[in-house]
Amino acid sequence: MIESPCSRVLVVGAGTMGEALIAGWLRPQPPAPALLDARQVAAVNARPARSDELTARYGIACTCDVAQAPSADVVVLAVKPQKMAEVVRQANGRGPFAPDARRLYVSIAAGVSTAALERLLPEGSPVVRAMPNMPLRIGAGATALCAGAHAGEADLRCASRLFSCFGLVEKVSEQLMDAVCAVSGSGPAYVAAFVEALRDAGQACGLERGLSERLALQTVLGTARMLAEGNQSPAELRRSICSPGGTTLAALDAMSASGFDSVLARGVAAACSRSKELGAPS
């Protein structure tokens, strides 16, 4: 359990990702205990039914009114990028946005820069921007962090501690956050789409749909583990599987001729561009 300047955490906007964070912090991680206990976590959600659900499920304090939220050392901003300014302004300098104490603000809103957040928050507030991805729900996530103008090393350490229980944590410069969003933030959807496509291709070749999906999924899972746990680069592993004149090389040649690499590059570029658009002043 954290006993430090970041021991009380408030999640503003406890939707899918916000709840995933709460669940991860409260989940024991044998042989270690949970990072936080329910007394250290609170949440804000605008819908009363949702607030009641979070309280019943996790035993945490939850309110519908951000201005009435309990005090916290760390405020995690988990609202949609388009709603960020509205949520902060509605609080009107009260609750977690009151200028009465130093708080660390951690934002997981795609595209919203630390500078934009600093303009909304009390003057001099430390801001850390985080870009986690959905596999954090099973402790296999990837999160990138960057610091705003007023955030120091202690603030980054606090944010890193909060996300390290979910998997990989990397610190990057803010100019790279849109690219991070496009690669790891949106990446799980690309992988899911690849599994779908591989399943459908197998079905077209005669496999039963369920069998084809199981084979495709296990292939992705096993290959990812080989890359993560082994000592081969992706290129080395790919080459080791290809035999001259064999089936794998025939498949890769056909994919390359159809623009496999360029299609993926265009998709990542589109996600990166959209992330920048979300962060542009309205």
From TrEMBL:
The keyword Electron transport is annotated on this UniProt entry: no
Keywords: Amino-acid biosynthesis, Cytoplasm, NADP, Oxidoreductase, Proline biosynthesis
Pathway note: Amino-acid biosynthesis; L-proline biosynthesis; L-proline from L-glutamate 5-semialdehyde: step 1/1
EC number(s) stated in the UniProt entry for this protein: 1.5.1.2
UniProt enzyme class: oxidoreductase
Molecular function GO terms recorded: pyrroline-5-carboxylate reductase activity
InterPro entries assigned: 6-PGluconate_DH-like_C_sf, NAD(P)-bd_dom_sf, P5C_Rdtase_cat_N, P5CR_dimer, Pyrroline-COOH_reductase
Pfam families: F420_oxidored, P5CR_dimer
Major localization listed first in the record, in broad terms: cytoplasm
GO cellular component annotations of the record: cytoplasm
GO biological process: one example: L-proline biosynthetic process
Catalyses which reaction(s): L-proline + NAD(+) = (S)-1-pyrroline-5-carboxylate + NADH + 2 H(+); L-proline + NADP(+) = (S)-1-pyrroline-5-carboxylate + NADPH + 2 H(+)
SUPFAM superfamilies: 6-phosphogluconate dehydrogenase C-terminal domain-like, NAD(P)-binding Rossmann-fold domains
Compartments it resides in: Cytoplasm
Annotated family: Belongs to the pyrroline-5-carboxylate reductase family.
Described purpose of this protein according to its UniProt entry: Catalyzes the reduction of 1-pyrroline-5-carboxylate (PCA) to L-proline.
PANTHER family: PYRROLINE-5-CARBOXYLATE REDUCTASE (PTHR11645), PYRROLINE-5-CARBOXYLATE REDUCTASE 3 (PTHR11645:SF0)
Name under which the protein is recorded: Pyrroline-5-carboxylate reductase
Organism of provenance: Berryella wangjianweii
Gene from which this protein is expressed: proC
